[in-house]
Amino acid sequence: MNSDDPLLLRGFQEGYRWEGVNRMPYKEDTTAPFRAISRQVLFAEEKLGCELRYFEMAPDGHSTLERHEHMHAVMILRGHGRCLLGEEVRTVRPFDLVTIPSWTWHQFRADASETMGFLCMVNADRDKPQLPSEADLAELRAIPVVARFLSDDPVTATGGG
Ligand code: MN
Questions:
Q1: What is the pTM of this model?
Q2: Gap from CA of 105 to ligand 1 centroid (Å)
Q3: How many angstroms does the Cα of residue 66 sit away from the middle of ligand 1?
């Protein structure tokens, strides 16, 4: 075994942390709007071809509204919230599985009273997320349920933890 070999077992720790895993900002790109969300990369071995990340949002936190060619496979791990999936808004709870197809607008929002965390699997080799243009936003807001989902957050362009 050399120092590049992965640790074969990394223990689960208090507070939804894992041994040897750093808790990072959600995104390096702070121009993308998000709030109170962190990222831990749990698996990123080159030979896997995919990565498994754990994202956690503080109460009322949310991920970026975005779309991209790559897919997400998500499992809610803790807490309750809602997610935008294209033109639909769904409530989510622990252990729900969420598939996000290519080019589908998506965003996760934690309920106001609860921390929400989810696992997200992605291809290691993936395209950059696209943010909505003003025209895209207008189209999304034309769908009443989506408009309500988006207007729950008066803050539209701040970075966050
Ligand atoms: Mn995404």
A1: 0.89
A2: 8
A3: 6
